[in-house]
Protein backbone atom coordinates (compact mmCIF):
# COMPACT_ATOMS: atom_id res chain seq x y z
CA UNK A 1 0.00 0.00 0.00
CA UNK A 2 2.82 2.40 0.87
CA UNK A 3 4.49 1.65 -2.46
CA UNK A 4 1.33 2.56 -4.38
CA UNK A 5 0.92 5.75 -2.34
CA UNK A 6 4.53 6.69 -3.06
CA UNK A 7 3.93 6.10 -6.79
CA UNK A 8 0.84 8.34 -6.74
CA UNK A 9 2.74 11.12 -4.94
CA UNK A 10 5.61 10.79 -7.42
CA UNK A 11 3.19 10.98 -10.36
CA UNK A 12 1.48 14.08 -8.94
CA UNK A 13 4.92 15.61 -8.39
CA UNK A 14 5.77 14.96 -12.04
CA UNK A 15 2.51 16.68 -13.06
CA UNK A 16 3.32 19.68 -10.84
CA UNK A 17 0.41 19.15 -8.46
CA UNK A 18 2.36 18.02 -5.36
CA UNK A 19 5.95 18.32 -4.21
CA UNK A 20 7.98 15.19 -3.38
CA UNK A 21 6.79 15.39 0.25
CA UNK A 22 3.16 15.16 -0.90
CA UNK A 23 2.26 18.78 -0.17
CA UNK A 24 0.27 20.79 -2.77
CA UNK A 25 2.28 23.33 -4.74
CA UNK A 26 -0.68 25.67 -5.29
CA UNK A 27 -3.88 26.30 -3.39
CA UNK A 28 -6.54 24.58 -5.51
CA UNK A 29 -9.44 25.17 -3.11
CA UNK A 30 -10.55 21.57 -3.39
CA UNK A 31 -9.65 20.45 0.11
CA UNK A 32 -10.58 23.53 2.11
CA UNK A 33 -12.70 22.83 5.14
CA UNK A 34 -15.79 24.99 5.55
CA UNK A 35 -15.66 27.74 8.15
CA UNK A 36 -16.88 26.47 11.52
CA UNK A 37 -20.13 27.78 12.95
CA UNK A 38 -19.90 30.25 15.80
CA UNK A 39 -20.97 27.74 18.48
CA UNK A 40 -18.64 25.05 17.18
CA UNK A 41 -15.75 27.51 16.98
CA UNK A 42 -16.21 28.50 20.61
CA UNK A 43 -16.09 24.84 21.66
CA UNK A 44 -19.53 24.93 23.27
CA UNK A 45 -22.38 22.46 23.01
CA UNK A 46 -25.05 23.04 20.39
CA UNK A 47 -28.16 24.31 22.20
CA UNK A 48 -31.47 22.75 21.16
CA UNK A 49 -34.93 23.65 22.46
CA UNK A 50 -36.74 21.13 24.67
CA UNK A 51 -38.13 20.60 28.18
CA UNK A 52 -36.87 22.67 31.16
CA UNK A 53 -33.60 21.41 32.66
CA UNK A 54 -33.65 20.83 36.45
CA UNK A 55 -29.96 21.78 36.70
CA UNK A 56 -29.67 25.05 34.73
CA UNK A 57 -33.35 25.93 34.18
CA UNK A 58 -33.05 26.38 30.41
CA UNK A 59 -35.65 24.77 28.15
CA UNK A 60 -33.01 22.57 26.51
CA UNK A 61 -33.71 19.00 27.72
CA UNK A 62 -33.91 16.49 24.85
CA UNK A 63 -34.03 12.68 24.71
CA UNK A 64 -30.65 11.45 23.43
CA UNK A 65 -29.36 7.85 23.35
CA UNK A 66 -32.18 6.74 25.65
CA UNK A 67 -31.54 9.40 28.30
CA UNK A 68 -32.70 12.92 29.03
CA UNK A 69 -29.84 15.28 28.07
CA UNK A 70 -29.49 19.05 28.48
CA UNK A 71 -27.85 20.61 25.43
CA UNK A 72 -27.01 23.78 27.38
CA UNK A 73 -25.17 22.43 30.45
CA UNK A 74 -24.65 18.72 29.63
CA UNK A 75 -26.84 17.42 32.48
CA UNK A 76 -27.88 13.77 32.01
CA UNK A 77 -31.21 12.90 33.58
CA UNK A 78 -33.36 9.79 33.69
CA UNK A 79 -32.48 6.99 31.28
CA UNK A 80 -34.86 4.41 29.95
Architecture overview:
With 80 residues, this protein is of the alpha+beta class. It has two domains: 1-32, no CATH class; 36-80, N-terminal domain of TfIIb (Single Sheet), CATH 2.20.25. Helix content is 24%, strand content 15%. It has two helices and three strands. A three-stranded antiparallel β-sheet has the order 1-2-3, with no helix packed on it. A hairpin with a 2-residue loop joins β1 (61-64) and β2. It is elongated, with a radius of gyration of 23 Å.
Instruction: Report helical residue fraction.
Output: 10-25%
Largest sheet: 3 strands, antiparallel
Poorly predicted tracts of residues: none
Question: Taking Cα atoms only, what radius of gyration do you get, to the nearest Å?
Answer: 23 Å
The CATH topology of the largest domain turns out to be N-terminal domain of TfIIb
What spatial form do the alpha-carbon principal axes imply?
Answer: elongated
Element string (H = helix, E = strand): HHEEE
CATH top level assignment of the largest domain: Mainly Beta
Number of helices: 2
Cα separation of the termini: 46 Å
What order do the strands of the largest sheet run in, or round the barrel if closed? Answer: 1-2-3
Output the structural class: alpha+beta
Amino acid sequence: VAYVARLVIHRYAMLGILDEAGQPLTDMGLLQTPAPKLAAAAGTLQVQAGKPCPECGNATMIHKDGCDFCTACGYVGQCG
